[in-house]
């Protein structure tokens, strides 16, 4: 990735946070009005041009504002993001909900996926080697403006009928991180450019599984990433001990 100055990185963070919150392209006028970055409007405009030239932002088709590219989101996740710890009340509620099902693997994994969909307000999915495929929260993605595009929605929902493709795609991902984020066409599908998949692999004995969410690339990664990690940890802890 090209090097960014501290000022440009801060500007990129502000733009991404604003875009995630509003789903609207972000213009320099919005930045000047809503945020005090300690620099002139001209500097902000020039830095936004630089961010676009380096591939972190792109022009929106619908307005003069800019939106983050997959590269912009990747830089945000890798360099700028500060994870937000899952609230203790949520941790306790999730643990209690799943603890009761720890003796029945299928029921446990099905409810883990359902709980993840509810907690993140995204479409969640999961599977385990030689086991069923689970998904929940389809209606959640329909609330996002990105999925007003019927072709994108058909592509995403079509993945639910391509469980072997999903399994192979996620199984091939090599990462040192406990939670992996596939942004845009990193999934191998150009049509998925407006989307992200956030998932974690887990191990039960000699079987590998995964659990994760699919939603717009414009998502709250600081909350989503630790939630996916926590569900994965509960799966290994509660199912792995029986």
UniProtKB/TrEMBL annotation:
<dbReference type="GO" id="GO:0003677">
    <property type="term" value="F:DNA binding"/>
</dbReference>
<dbReference type="Pfam" id="PF01628">
    <property type="entry name" value="HrcA"/>
</dbReference>
<dbReference type="InterPro" id="IPR001034">
    <property type="entry name" value="DeoR_HTH"/>
</dbReference>
<keyword id="KW-0346">Stress response</keyword>
<dbReference type="GO" id="GO:0003700">
    <property type="term" value="F:DNA-binding transcription factor activity"/>
</dbReference>
<comment type="similarity">
    <text>Belongs to the HrcA family.</text>
</comment>
<dbReference type="InterPro" id="IPR029016">
    <property type="entry name" value="GAF-like_dom_sf"/>
</dbReference>
<keyword id="KW-0678">Repressor</keyword>
<dbReference type="GO" id="GO:0045892">
    <property type="term" value="P:negative regulation of DNA-templated transcription"/>
</dbReference>
<dbReference type="InterPro" id="IPR036388">
    <property type="entry name" value="WH-like_DNA-bd_sf"/>
</dbReference>
<dbReference type="InterPro" id="IPR021153">
    <property type="entry name" value="HrcA_C"/>
</dbReference>
<dbReference type="InterPro" id="IPR002571">
    <property type="entry name" value="HrcA"/>
</dbReference>
<dbReference type="Pfam" id="PF08220">
    <property type="entry name" value="HTH_DeoR"/>
</dbReference>
<dbReference type="InterPro" id="IPR036390">
    <property type="entry name" value="WH_DNA-bd_sf"/>
</dbReference>
<comment type="function">
    <text>Negative regulator of class I heat shock genes (grpE-dnaK-dnaJ and groELS operons). Prevents heat-shock induction of these operons.</text>
</comment>
<feature type="domain" description="Heat-inducible transcription repressor HrcA C-terminal">
    <location>
        <begin position="76"/>
        <end position="225"/>
    </location>
</feature>
<keyword id="KW-0805">Transcription regulation</keyword>
<protein>
    <recommendedName>
        <fullName>Heat-inducible transcription repressor HrcA</fullName>
    </recommendedName>
</protein>
<keyword id="KW-0804">Transcription</keyword>
<feature type="domain" description="HTH deoR-type">
    <location>
        <begin position="37"/>
        <end position="61"/>
    </location>
</feature>
């Amino acid at each position: 990735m090209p090097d960014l100055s501290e000022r440009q990185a801060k500007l990129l963070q502000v733009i991404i946070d604003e875009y995630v919150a509003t789903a609207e392209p972000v213009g320099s006028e919005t930045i000047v009005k809503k945020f005090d970055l300690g620099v002139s409007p001209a500097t902000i405009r020039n830095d936004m041009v630089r961010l676009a030239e380096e591939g972190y932002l792109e022009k929106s088709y619908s307005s003069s504002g800019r939106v983050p590219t997959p590269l912009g989101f990747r830089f945000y996740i890798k360099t700028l993001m500060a994870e937000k710890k899952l609230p203790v009340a949520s941790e306790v509620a999730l643990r209690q909900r799943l603890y009761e099902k720890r003796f029945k693997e299928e029921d446990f994994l099905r409810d883990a996926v359902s709980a993840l969909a509810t907690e993140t307000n995204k479409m969640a999915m999961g599977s385990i080697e030689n086991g069923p495929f689970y998904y929940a929260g389809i209606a959640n993605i329909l609330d996002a403006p990105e999925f007003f595009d019927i072709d994108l929605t058909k592509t995403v929902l079509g993945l639910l009928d391509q469980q072997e493709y999903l399994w192979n795609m996620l199984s091939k991902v090599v990462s040192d991180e406990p939670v992996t984020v596939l942004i845009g066409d990193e999934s191998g599908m150009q049509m998925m450019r407006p989307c992200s998949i956030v998932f974690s692999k887990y191990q039960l004995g000699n079987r590998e599984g995964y659990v994760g969410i699919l939603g717009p690339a414009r998502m709250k990664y600081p909350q989503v990433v630790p939630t996916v990690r926590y569900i994965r940890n509960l799966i290994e802890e509660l199912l792995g001990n029986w």
